[in-house]
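User: Can you help me understand a structure? I only have the sequence.
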Amino acid sequence: MTSSPPPAVAHAPAPGAEPRQRRARRKEARPGELLDAALALFVEKGFAATRVDEVAARAGVSKGTLFLYFPSKEELFKAVVRETIAGRFTEWNDELARFEGSSAELVRYCMHSWWERIGMTAASGITKLVMSEAGMFPEIAAFYQQEVIGPGHDLLGRVLQRGMDRGEFRPLHIEYTVYSLIAPMIFLLMWKHSMAPCCPPSQQLDPLQFIDSQVSLLLGGLLMPPADTPDLPRPSSTSDAP
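Assistant: Let's start by predicting it. Here is the structure, written out as tokens:
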């Protein structure tokens, strides 16, 4: 009669192994936790009023630990912007290249996508922060111009150029038309982080309805008129008025 093999013995982890694993997982989580805490405080208090020790405390780490990842408050802010806004331009550019609908549909898609991915998130407060504190921190404004405003202008400019190339949009001054697309979105952000918390429900805006209304108005000035539509008479100038 053969004897059965001895049962397997479960070896206990080496002393200190589990704490080391927890510390490793904790270390990997720290940059993300610090960025989340910094974003919340920057939006709540502004750049100038936010202290790095507050960020560290909210993330549950020491100030020294924060400086291991981000050597200054400016670098922490830049990391927040790259993580929440600037880092999205790669996916947006890829979506633009793959988009198969009309250019009018693409304009609407861009504005809806921006609201869903930025406007509805905590990152929506960054624009107000930059606009209100640019004079005090020109280096922050220059960074935001390079990482967010410039790429955003370029992307929307390509959308408009696509419409002109396909004969869907009339000839446009692209630079100024880009501002016409951006202006309603900035208004929404400023409203959300200033007046909206103070307004009664009857005066609140529905962001998506507002965006759709703005898109309809903008496209009315972008789309080529039908070939059989007669040209409208030009309004007389002030100097011609009696």
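Now, to help you interpret it: The chain has two domains: 24-81, 85-225. The mean pLDDT is 85. Let me know which part you'd like to focus on.
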